[in-house]
Request: fold
Amino acid sequence: MRITIFTTPVLSPLLRWLSRQILRLLGWTLTGEMPANTRQSVVIAAPHTSNWDFPYTLMVAFAMNLNIQWMGKRQLFRFPFRHLMLWLGGIPVDRSQSTNLVDASVQSLQNAQHDLHLVVPPEGTRSQTHHWKTGFYYIALGAQVPIILGYLDFGQKKSGLGPALMPTGDLEADMAIIKAFYAPFKGKNPDQFLLE
Reply:
């Protein structure tokens, strides 16, 4: 198992306490929890409209005692930040190539001997986008793990975990449920969060 900031002895309990204090001081509330006995999952991270989403996601994960890994563009993992980003739970993604990322992610979840919650922003970018990427859906479907609806609502300063959805294989029907859940939320830059 790769050591990340979430599994580093001594430091992780301290960061968990610190994250709770910072979120409370900033006026954020946390809701929901990981469903009982859910050791592996795909967690949607939406809305994703700002660089601020990253530190808030890390703090929320700590405050909720989640062991997460997240996907980020490979440019974030260049020298001198590569080891830091990997330690923060990052998994580099090369968007310029057609890689077998879905299959590799499925394999990682199926082979995990520990809690593993893979965080995926379905927009795939902080910029305005009209369509969500569906990789997160096929990862969960292939690994037979639930999709957890994680969110950051900057409008109400609320974050946490919404319901769990076990993918049925009917992408259109499942995406309609997912997008209905996210419809009321506001990202840091709300004009960039479009659900179509």
Residues 11-189 form one domain. The helical segments are 11-25, 53-63, 82-87, 101-111, 135-143, 171-182.
